[in-house]
Specification:
Elements lengths: L2 H4 L17 E6 L3 E4 L2 E4 L6 E4 L10 E5 L2 H5 L14 E4 L7 H9 L5 E5 L4 H9 L5 E4 L2 H8 L5 H5 L2 H8 L7 H9 L6 H7 L4 E4 L1
Parallel strand pairs: 5-6, 5-7, 7-8
Antiparallel strand pairs: 1-4, 1-6, 2-3, 8-9
Length: 208
């Protein structure tokens, strides 16, 4: 039962098994075009919708992008992404941890849907690319731009605080992702998505 349903039985609505966001996602699109409930919706740039999972037709999805930070998600129309991703459904991952509604949607996906993670360029962000369900690609700047344009935005203390994620990454073996992971770990880098967006650096697709 959700909180509305549970108050018929107990006084404390917080005892409900289903929380308000459990069956919802926060969604937007680079070009503002969303297809929900079988209808096309044109959103003003920078606007997102809180959508019930029932509004998403998985059979119509071709590409999904999961964005780690909410302010980057809110300004996704400013991201420098490949033109073929302008129609992709863009989802917010959730504050501190993955939103349950997003997890439910990702676990339900079947077929040849490309599911991309756009993370912070730090160990914890890259770890989320492995731990978020059905991620098969990640969006990040190329290594040359990281080294020449972003390195001054790296936060050493943040990297040091993520030693558990560094250990996790060293155990992973995904050939296409290894050069990016190795570069960040060997150079002790922790760069937030906000710096990438501010500099309007091109994001490239690293497929598994």
């Amino acid at each position: 039962l959700d909180r509305i349903g549970v108050v018929a039985h107990v006084q404390d609505d917080k005892l409900a098994d289903v929380k308000p966001n459990d069956n919802f996602i926060l969604a937007t699109a680079y070009n503002g075009k969303l297809s929900v409930f079988g209808c096309a919706i044109n959103l003003p740039l920078g606007v997102s919708l809180r959508l019930p999972l029932t509004s998403i037709d998985n059979t119509c999805l071709k590409a999904l992008i999961v964005v780690e930070n909410q302010d980057v998600f809110d300004n996704w129309h400013l991201a420098n992404i490949p033109s073929e991703l302008h129609d992709a459904l863009v989802l917010y991952r959730g504050h501190d941890s993955m939103a349950k509604g997003l997890k439910t949607l990702l676990e339900s996906l079947e077929g040849n849907i490309e599911v991309m993670m756009c993370p912070d360029l730090d160990p914890k962000g890259l770890e989320s690319c492995f731990t978020t369900p059905n991620i098969n690609a990640l969006l990040a700047p190329n290594i040359e731009d990281i080294q020449t344009q972003l390195i001054q935005h790296s936060q050493m203390q943040k990297f040091m605080d993520q030693h558990n994620s560094v250990s996790y990454l060293k155990k992973q073996q995904w050939a296409a992702w290894n050069p990016l992971i190795q570069h960040l770990v060997e150079n002790n880098l922790a760069i937030m998505q906000q710096a990438v967006l501010a500099l309007k650096l091109p994001l490239v697709v690293y497929r598994r």
